[in-house]
Amino acid sequence: MSAILEVEHLVTSFPSAKRGQTIKAVNDVSIHLNQGEIVGLVGESGCGKSTLGRSIVGLEKPQSGRVVFDGVDLGSLSGRRLREARRAVQYVFQDPYASLNDRQTVGEAINEALIIAGLRSQTEREGRIAELLNQVGLATTVRDRFTRELSGGQRQRIAIARSLAVEPRVLICDEPVSALDLSIRAQVMNLFLDLREKLGVSCLFIAHDLALVRQAASRVYVMYLGKVVESGSSEEVYRNPSHPYTQLLLASVPEADPATERRRNPPLITGEIPSPTNPPSGCFFRTRCPLSVEACAEAEPVSQEVSSMHKAACRFAGGLFAKRVSAA
Amino acid sequence: MSSEPILRVKDLTIDLLTAHTVVRPVDGVAYELSRRETLAIVGESGSGKTVTCFAPLGLMPVGVQADISGSILFDSRQLVGSDNETLRSLRGKSIGFIFQDPMSALNPARRVGRQIAEVAELHLGMTARAAETRALELIKMVGMSDPEIRLKQYPHELSGGLRQRVMIAIAIAAEPTLLVADEPTTALDVTVQAQILRLLKEIQSRMDMAMILITHDMGVVAGAADRVMVMYAGRHVETGPTERVLSQPQHPYTMGLIDAIPRKQDAIGSRFRGLPGIPPILGAPITGCAFMARCGYAVDACGERRPPFLPTAVPGVSAACPVLNIRAKECA
Amino acid sequence: MQPVRPLLKAIGAFPRSAVFTIGAFVLLGLLAPYIAPHDPNAQDLLIAGQGPTLAHPFGVDHLGRDTLSRLIVAARTSLVGVCLVLVCAHAIGIAIGTIAGYRRGWTDELLMRIVDVGQAIPSLIVSLAVIGIAGVSYWNMILALALAWWPGSARISRAVAVNTMNKPHMEALRVLGASPVRIYFVHLLPTTIGAVLVYATADAGAVALAIATLSFLGLGIQPPTPEWGQMLVDALPYLESDPRQVILPGLTLTLAVIGFNILGEAVALNRVPKPLTSRMLAARRRVTAFWAKEARP
Question: Which of B217, B247, B274 sits opposite A257 (nearest CB)?
Fold first, then answer.
């Protein structure tokens, strides 16, 4: 498998409320996405996962680093060429109520995307609209409805259909189901699985819902304060979380089974995420980490290989970790 | 839960009337709640779970008239038909509220200490000085570090988790007997959610409160609630002890909801389980069972009249499902 | 005739007082030449200063011109003036505001600093300066007022444009690779114009007043064109002997300004949910009464 999308040492920062200071929302992140793969990106709010996604599609301007799509460095392009290259990477927004224009009908919204994609003939566009609606599991009769008349799940499908109009190869999905009702989440999640299967679309799935990501993604990245702290196959990361943050994050998720939930006594992460304006020295997680030692404050942890393809940025990752836990 | 119920709701129906429309978000709901007990009201958006708790206490947006019928006995006082004065004296004093979004529930221009003290002054008749002391006590009680400094801060200086702790401090300032928490952890991160839920349970047992937890997260229900009431389209479809409802759901809707939660055993890349169709849009009450259109077990009789709410084969669990009730009768 | 109904409904939602005043103002302005009973400039010195009579219900002025006709034609002058000023001011303002809001960065900084300077100087002083340089004429007055008014429009337009650009549906267009031309002309500009026109109604009263002020100072509309401010100046020498000549144009001007202000306020408050009237409540309850019968088993 070859990487279709590579993000190398990306840094995106925002000016802070205080003058002269900047917040590094994404701090030297490298990730990649293979053809036809669904990859999860998880973390708490403010960890920079959305900013990373937005930087990839050009909604935020990165300070440094590269976004390489299909072997082409997007930073080397500009103007029309850049817009056309970027079209292959589409973004699915969290809120389907805000991502569609209320004043457009379903047909108009998708038609506009087709015009942008350069489909000149009106009849061809009509045919393609029907095809796209069909692809996302909607009846073609919704074409003349205004988007505001539809439910959240339907609107999210239309937003997806609109993205598909420009024939993307990668979808960056930013919490695509968290605004939807429980009973419909599965429908939209299955749609992503279908799209990957039928169209070969790769997905970067940004979410805070760990269980959802586990089932959908073959690989997963865990972010904390703008950095990737752990990455690996979902199987590995969920079964053998090797960064203390990932462990505590997974342990915090309540179980829907009351018997296990009552017995479970999750180790609580104490405190809250430090301000990204002024992150701790050394390891960013050390202020909340139950394992932290003095050395953690001195140098940034190096990414350690736990097993092949499974990495964690913690000095105790891998073999050392088990010893440390049993000692603690 | 042998004690006398502190809250007894019977046949509660709420119609919301606005300049544009009229809807019935709550349709004949009934439940009971005892001291020290936690009832989780579970449902999707539009199921009426929030209106059930807020409208009877006069908490409604401007321009919305709530027509309420049925009966709500709180501490042997009838709330349905009470005047605004009575309701106002109950709100914040005997009944505390926690909202989903603490930022919009707090006054951004006042220090948090003042906001907590205000409740103590208003409902406990404390002097300003005594109320300040009380505020400090409460800040400590909700587990905030550096309590003296926190009192002097403004809401925007606090993180989401700390703001929710302030909300809790305000809600319990007057030592209410009932705490209504509307999605208290939905806006919070999962690590903070665990802290807040633990805090709520701790405070509940310390203050002998009854608690209504409005949520859509079955994980939260499993960890925090003694009993569950599942709502669909403004009606309660199933109630019972948490461990039974979650492990042996009886109503097809509850089954679907619980089945839809991804499990550890699910293979990576496998399809997600969920319910077909979409929830009904609020409006006029639906004839027959509201869930019929999405139900895999539906028979013709489901559409004829509203299914009665009856005990099921599982002890303590009641459900409103005609198919199920037939089976229950056969078992008996 | 499909669009008439919602339009009537929208008008019906505004306070009646404002609808009547502004409606009368606009109608008089549009139809002035047809409904004015006399030629507004026809002098008849024989009856100069005469009070109300059957032929001249509001009397005549010091040159014997019919006051009612002059008031009516002045409404037209004022209406045309207000419209021209608002169109010019908002054309400049919306152009600058949307460009700033679309481009952001240093363009935004630069344009907004210019707006700051414009807003820092009182509009009347700007107008006086422009007329002082360009000379007194009708079009110079329109230009002067437009130059005094655009910074406010630019500021609002920029706020609306920034807000619109940050909406996810606009971001979605950017991700789809829509060209800047499409984003600006097809989406940003129409949205901004729609939102800013709402604010324009609130400004109309102030512009009407400014036109009258400039005319009163002799810098705006020149005699013999009837104009309310102009009429006030004409009548000023007779303030004590015949106050009617001052009071009538003054009152008309006041009514128009108050009408615009009420309208503007209503437009601004339009988003606030309307209170339920008892009639509506009864209608809704009739619906629920029917439900109750159906739902109870």
Answer: B247
